[in-house]
Amino acid sequence: MILAGQKTRSIWLEPDGWSVGIFDQRRLPWAVERLRLTTMEACALAIADMATRGAPLIGAVAAYGIALALRADPGDESLDRAFDRLVSTRPTAVNLRWALDRVRGVVTRLPERDRAAAAYVEAGAICDADVEVNAAIGRAGLVILQSLVAAHPGRAINILTHCNAGWLATVDWGTATAPLYMAHDLGIPLHVWVDETRPRNQGALTALELAAHGVPHSYIVDNAGGLLMQRGQVDLVLVGTDRVTRNGDVCNKIGTYLKALAAHDNGIPFVVALPSSTYDAATPDGAAVKVEERSSEEVRRLDGPDLDGTMRQIVVTTSPTANPAFDITPARLVSAYITEKGRVRDAAGLTAAFG
Q1: Which stretches of 59-184 are assigned E, i.e. beta strand?
Q2: For residues 165 and 175, is the Cβ–Cβ distance under 8 A?
Q3: Could you report the per-residue pLDDT of 264-318, keeping only the tens digit for each?
């Protein structure tokens, strides 16, 4: 994908061959700054502080965190400490544990001298596979967009998305954005309503991505979506997910559930982009998911540049605040899941696709 006019992935190995590069997403969209991660603890802090974010991407960063830990000390205690530290950083996104389990499963049976190299190989494989998975999700979603175009000839189709499920949240392509990029590249007329997604305004990252790729879009406040649906200005709601449970419930950024309710009330398809690494067959339903509670400071304050470009911080309120980071959309409100295995309609289909 494209950022600052250059094709890039969201994570890479630096020229030294061992340190890990990421974009500092706390600085986006106002400035493009890169971080060089040289220790496991640096990876953990980047995930916890949301310098890097998005379920697939934090899994990839965590995988490299294990590699960095083993580079420093390949012993069993080092491996266990790294696993425990990294898995505790973000409790809701299932990709994190999935990636850590995958790397640990590879290196545990190896002699200590071979562990670091194997961890690097496995982390790289996780990244490469993520790109292929997202491209497959894009192709599955493209079919839905093409059907919408056929149903609405002569005008652009309107898609509403929430949070950032783009390439900045994955290694490349994104999940929910992959079909949008593919459709745009094919000349399909489309327009994207981008929810701002308070309190961290991740919609601004989606807008940054879409602008770099030339996709028509409008940035909207979170509560505008219902009115747009009532007016017939939304043809599809397309979101990503941090976890889908065995019964098909969707855990995603706070506010997703309200979009699903509005879509259901207005007869609009609500589609979830779901890579297999985000499917959690071990958790029966959304009620069993631990929802992360983040710092109240994210709600209380706003950060950004003033008109002169100087970064400022303002205080929105001094009242007590609460900040649940995710909500649960019941499976009954989901029209379809688009996966690397194709389009899936319900929990039975998820079980058939992913086991």
Answers
A1: 157-161
A2: yes
A3: 999 999 999 999 999 999 999 999 999 999 999 999 999 889 988 898 999 999 9
Other CB atoms closer than 10 Å to residue 187's CB: what's the count? 6
**Within the chain, what is the greatest distance between any pair of CA atoms?**
63
Residue given tokens 């030339």 in the structure block: 214
State the Cα–Cα distance between residues 157 and 232, nearest whole angstrom. Answer: 11
Dihedral sign for Cα atoms in the order 54, 91, 47, 39: negative
* Token output for 324: 């649940």
CB 127 within 8 A of CB 171: yes
Q: Residues 6 or more apart from 310 whose CB is under 8 A from it?
A: none
Q: What contacts 351, CB < 8 A, 6 or more positions away?
A: 246, 281
Contact call for residues 94 and 55 (beta carbons, < 8 A): yes
Centre a 10 Å sphere on the Cβ of residue 171 and count the other Cβ atoms it contains.
Answer: 25
Please state whether the predicted TM-score (pTM) of the whole model is above 0.85: yes
Q: Which residues are identified as catalytic?
A: 242
Rounded distance between C-alpha atoms, residue 98 and residue 58, angstroms:
11
Q: Residue 295 — φ and ψ, nearest 5°? A: -60, 140
pLDDT over threshold 90, residue 28:
yes
For residue 230, give every residue at least 6 positions away whose Cβ sits within 8 Å of its Cβ, in sequence order, or none: 266
Both structure tokens of 22:
């990421």
pLDDT at 2: 84
Report the side by side order of strands in the sheet with 190-195. 217-220, 190-195, 157-161, 236-239, 270-273, 336-339, 342-344
Kindly give the pairing relationship between strand 326-329 and strand 217-220.
unpaired
Q: Which class for 346: exposed (0-12), middle (13-18), buried (19 or more C-beta within 10 A)?
A: middle
Model pLDDT for residues 120-151, shown as the tens digit of each residue: 999 999 999 999 999 999 999 999 999 999 99
Angle at 229 between CA 231 and CA 140, to 5 degrees: 130
* H-helix or E-strand spanning residue 97: helix 94-107
pLDDT attached to residue 26:
93
Sign of torsion over alpha carbons 109, 113, 119, 124: negative
Dist. CA 351–CA 355, nearest whole Å: 5
Instruction: Classify residue 324 by its DSSP letter.
Output: B
